[in-house]
């Protein structure tokens, strides 16, 4: 299977689970995903005004956690359009943009 075929299959898979991704992530990890995000952001030692690039952002939970801890800007990038759309639905007036 070529790399472009692998990307297409991965995109399709994540696009299909996007509506229930957050619920599945929280349930299957028994909530551990929330804790590791908090720790990851604390360990980055971000300062006010910093920018964070979240690669494979999914629905944006890492970026949302970063914004909740610091006055920063976040850009999320993901292969799966539906994951980004779900993140945009969750986003209200936060400095977080998806590409």
Residue share in helix: 55-70%
Q: How many structural domains can be distinguished in the coordinates?
A: 1
Would you tell me which CATH topology applies?
Answer: Rossmann fold
* Helix/strand order, N-terminal first: HHHEHEHE
Count of DSSP E strands?
A: 3
Determine and state the CATH class. Alpha Beta
Q: How would you sum up the major sheet?
A: 3 strands, parallel
What's the CATH architecture? 3-Layer(aba) Sandwich
The unreliable regions are none
Structural class: alpha/beta
* Whole-angstrom Rg: 14 Å
Estimate the global geometry from the Cα principal axes: globular
Structure characterization notes:
With 99 residues, the chain is an alpha/beta fold. The chain has a single domain, classed as Vaccinia Virus protein VP39 (Rossmann fold, 3-Layer(aba) Sandwich), CATH 3.40.50. The protein has five helices and three strands. Helix 5 links the parallel strand 2 and strand 3 (96-98). Helix 3 (32-44) crosses helix 4 (61-69). The model has no long low-confidence stretch (mean pLDDT 90).
Topology:
Elements: H1 3-17, H2 21-28, H3 32-44, E1 51-55, H4 61-69, E2 73-77, H5 81-90, E3 96-98
Parallel strand pairs: 1-2, 2-3
Helix pairs in contact: 3-4
Could you give a quick summary of the protein structure above?
InterPro entries: SAM-dependent_MTases_sf, UbiE/COQ5_MeTrFase_CS. The protein has helices at residues 3-17, 21-28, 32-44, 61-69, 81-90; strands at 51-55, 73-77, 96-98. It is of the alpha/beta class.
